[in-house]
Amino acid sequence: MTSAQKNKIRVGRSSAGLGIFALKELRKNELVGEYTGEKISAAEGDRRGGKYLFTIDKQTVIDGKSRRNTARYFNHSCKPNCYVEINERTKRIFIHAKRRVLPGEELTYNYGKEYFNEYIKPFGCKCTAHASKN
């Protein structure tokens, strides 16, 4: 976690296990975190497999399995309060607040259809958008 992130977010218990929570109010579009890890080829990502692979482009994947990658704790939501920005030129992934976020709120983004179908749907989505429907 960078020093800037330490002032904004913390890792804590959530409905889906561990999650990221706002420590202070976040403004719309404010940078909240960066998804970091080993940059590998898409072929190597296919070989390794795993839940923490994040595709940057057709050739590059970030393997974010290291616990030093605090952004791995952002959980999925079907109604997220954050969004992901992929910079293909610099091969970096940034997470921003989608709207104003209040202290104590869990920070989430939509993991996308492919990830959802492979890792979430078979076990049932645990995001608050689904929890409120039950």
TrEMBL record:
UniProt xrefs under PROSITE patterns: SET (PS50280)
Biological processes per GO annotation: heterochromatin formation
SET domain segment(s): 7-112
Pfam families: SET
Highest rank taxon of the organism: Bacteria
InterPro entries: EZH1/2-like (IPR045318), SET_dom (IPR001214), SET_dom_sf (IPR046341)
GO molecular function, one term: chromatin binding
Keywords: Transcription, Transcription regulation
Residues that span the membrane, as ranges: none
Record protein name field: SET domain-containing protein
